[in-house]
Amino acid sequence: MSGGPRRSPLAAAALAMLAQAALAQAQPEALPGTTLKVSPELRPASRRDGSAPLPIILLADKIQGRPDLDAFAEGHVEMRRDGTVVRADRFTYDVADDLAKASGNVSISRDGNRFSGPELQLHVQRFEGFFVQPDYYLAVTQAGGHAERVNFIGPQRAEAINATYTSCPRDGSQDPAWLLSTDRVRMDFETNTGIAEGAVVRFYGVPILAAPVLSFPLTDDRKSGWLPPSMNLDSKSGVELGVPYYWNIAPNRDATFTPTVMTRRGVALDTEFRYLQPGFRGRVDWNVLPNDRLTGRSRQAVLFEHEGDTVGAVHYRADLLRVSDDGYWRDFPRAVPSLTPRLLPLDVQADRNVSALNGDWRLYARVQRWQLLNPDDGSTSIVAPPYDRAPQLGFSGFGRLGAGRGALEYSLESELNHFELAEGQGTSAQRPTRGTRVHVVSALAWPFSLPGGWITPRLSVNAADYRYTYRDGSTGPELEGRGSRTVPTFSVDSGMVFERNSRWFGRAMRQTLEPRLLYVNTPYRAQSQLPNFDAAGKDFNEISVYSDNAFAGVDRVSDTHQLAAGVTTRWLDAQTGVEAMRLGIVQRYLFRDQQITPAPQGGVAVEGEPLTQPLSDVLLLASSTIWPHWTVSGAVQYNPDTSRVVRSVTGVRYSPGPFRTVNLNYRFTRGSLEQAELGWQWPIYQSARDKNSSGSCSGSWYGVGRLNYSMRDRRLTDSLVGMEYDAGCWIGRVVAERVSTGRSEATTRLMLQLELVGLSRLGSNPLRALKDNIPGYRLLREERGKDAAGATYD
Q1: What are the residue ranges spanned by the domains of the chain?
Q2: pLDDT of residue 39
Q3: Residues with Cβ within 8 Å of residue 306, at least 6 apart in sequence
Q4: Who's near 38: CB < 8 A, 6+ residues apart?
Q5: How far apart are the C-alpha atoms of 284 and 276, rounded to whole Å?
Q6: Is 147 in contact with 138 (CB distance < 8 Å)?
Q7: Phi then psi dihedrals of residue 349, to 5 deg
Q8: Among the residues of 640-694, which ranges form H helices?
Q9: Exposed, middle or buried, 510 (CB in 10 Å: 0-12/13-18/19+)?
Q10: What torsion, rounded to 10 degrees, do the Cα atoms 178, 184, 188, 189 define?
Q11: Residue 207 and residue 8 in contact, taking contact as beta carbons nearer than 8 Å
């Protein structure tokens, strides 16, 4: 299973690397012969049969000895053995006892790890001995420490006495900012187990975490054990303190249990189980609060994700998210990981890809049901529920008829759907309680490629047959209904691309001019008496303006006789091809009135008023990165009849370097929305120290945040504000987040985190909230995305 525990076991494991690097000298690698070969690393080749020990290469100012008895070296002594280099002032080797002694400025280096001390004694073949007062530095974590003594007990075991570990430098006689100290660390590399006794983490001399006995893995492999605690301050739940326990069940299965105490609600348990097999994978997350003191009832949430492949190349997937009550999403927003927290899915689907009839085809089946969360206290607006689908059976494909430039292209989709609406969800003749729909959507296109352009005539048909049940009035009897319709559409899509060389601000550019015309003719077919199960109006944007239907879904097809005409010009860097600027304009012209149009967003109705004006709104598009560090983009929908902007989305970002980004976005929809959003990550105070050096732990302050302000409501909606302090060897984060959960209701939480660089993160985890809310946010010390135990963070 990839990854591992998403929060690190407290990594006294870093101390294990001290012994691991030294123990590597004793591994029985061998040579094909005893002849030395020229190598700049003085690293001998391996012996296959393991019949002889690795040779020792010895350099010094003075070497003397007696054959088969002893050897003595003095002055700039350097011993090399299988990539490990030992330096000392004096070195002796007793052949009879197989005992090597090094003294005076002893240092060992291997794979970037460095160790130094006054004395080393080692029985080379048995690898038994000791290292006195070693200091060490580990390249992987860029941290190190000191031990009173390291005892080597064979090739696979070692013991460190009174060992410390930190990534902070020592400033004179002062202790480092944070320090992990242990009375004893025993390491068994054969079982990948380390045991630390009397482990204590101190932060500026104050103990913040302690464990009488701590077990940890010696490599990146996962290991069962307690993980660092997490703490949140929530405006509804109070103080939340959770202590996760990680259970490494097998290499392909694991589980995490997190008992959590909430001062206002009680005790909860979050259980996550993950599994990974050759043919399938998934996870189960169950969060239960047996007795919520605020509501007086049990509350829970269940998340299930599973996907895999079966015999016959059938791929399947199942997703389930269910909660115990309608108010769960407001009280526990972090426990409902959904883009639509009030609409929770149950989605089971399977599909298979096949090739036939000169095309690629997909066969699929699906069941989709929803849990709608509509609290009955009037604090939030009512959401109209979508229909459940049980089942959805269909196939779709595309291909070519013929070969060469004149080949026809075809596409075909057909489905059988059974829809059902939950009891009491606003049924009527236009919103039936249940129904069955069979539809076919097919198209035949004849694309032509021209020098610098293209033209594609296309004929499509959208046909559907309905059988459904509805009520005559809110309390009337159920009635049966049936209907069908067939809507053909003819369209011609064409465009050209012109290019020329130009220069902007001293840069060589290539400018394009790209006009495009789309002609669409769809006759009127009455559809208002037919049910609408899945159709909705499309937004007016640069993609939908060049489509032949104003609706997404199957149940509505807009009648139209129109021409969409637009032009786009782009400036591309002549050397790299990167787009520096884009400008575009597009508008539709109606040759006749359009009877079937999308209704305004919101409400149950899908059809709006007929469109009689010959010219549509104008869509203006722009984006630019021509100025260094600046990105500007915008889309404006303008009504020329009223000379007013109908809808606009504009944004600007300034990012001059790492950890420096400011985003400003403005969204406007006439009559319904006007919102400004500001997001940033920016240094408030930055120390003069070089971050890549091992200088003092003087720190830098960074401000982070995102503010959403509704100008219509004159209030802040969702917001996130925080501070980050990078001291070099530790990082502190304080983040406050406010999430709107109703018209005048919000949930606020305070997240505190202390990251000890090279060891672990303690406290709550605001990093996901920062990444999700601040475009361009970068993690401080991003190169250390893994902790000392190799565990990754979400």
Answers
A1: 13-223, 257-383, 647-794
A2: 44
A3: 280, 281, 282, 317, 318
A4: none
A5: 12
A6: no
A7: -145, 155
A8: none
A9: middle
A10: 30
A11: no
Cα–Cα dist 678/773, whole Å: 10
- Residue 626 phi/psi, 5° resolution? -70, -30
Q: Which of 312, 309, 308, 288 shows the shortest CA–CA distance to 299?
A: 288
Q: Which helix (H) or strand (E) holds 15?
A: helix 13-23
Model pTM above 0.90:
no
- Show Cβ contacts of residue 214 under 8 Å, excluding neighbours closer than 6 positions: 10, 12, 182, 195, 196, 197, 199, 225
Cα-to-chain-centroid distance, residue 88: 49
**Nearest alpha carbon to residue 373 among 411, 410, 344:** 344
Q: pLDDT at position 173, please?
A: 60
- Token couple for 70: 């002893």
Place of tokens 């997240």: 751
What value does the mean pLDDT of the chain take?
83
Q: Is the peptide bond before 598 cis (omega within 30 degrees of 0)?
A: no
Tokens representing residue 154 in the block: 């064979």
- SS3 state of residue 251: coil
Q: Domain 13-223: give its CATH code.
A: 2.60.450.10
Phi and psi, residue 734, nearest 5°: -130, 115
- The phi and psi torsions of 20 (rounded to 5 degrees) equal -65, -45
Does the pLDDT value for residue 12 go beyond 50? no
Q: Using the predicted structure, report yes or no on whether residue 520 has a pLDDT greater than 80.
A: yes
Please say whether the dihedral angle defined by the alpha carbons of residues 171, 173, 178 and 184, taken in this order, is positive or negative.
positive
| Helix, coil or strand: residue 664 | strand
Range 45-49 contact pairs with CB under 8 angstroms and sequence separation of 24 or more: none
Cα dihedral 98, 104, 109, 114 sign = positive
What CA–CA distances, in Å, run from 39 to 36, 44, 82, 177? 9, 8, 12, 43
Residues 6+ apart with CB under 8 A from 303: 283, 284, 285, 286, 320, 321, 337
Q: Which residues contact 539 (CB under 8 A, 6 or more apart)?
A: none
Contact criterion met (CB below 8 Å) for 788 and 781: no
What's the pLDDT band for 381 if we cut at 50, 70, 90?
low
Give dist(CA 772, CA 770) in Å, integer.
6
Q: How far is CA 157 from the centre of its chain?
A: 39
* Assigned token pair, 755: 């990251």
pLDDT at 427 over 90: no
- Enclosing H/E stretch for 136: strand 135-138
Enumerate helices (H) and strands (E) in the chain, giving the number of each: 3, 46
Query: Distance between CA 152 and CA 22 in Å, rounded?
Result: 9
SS3 at position 421: coil
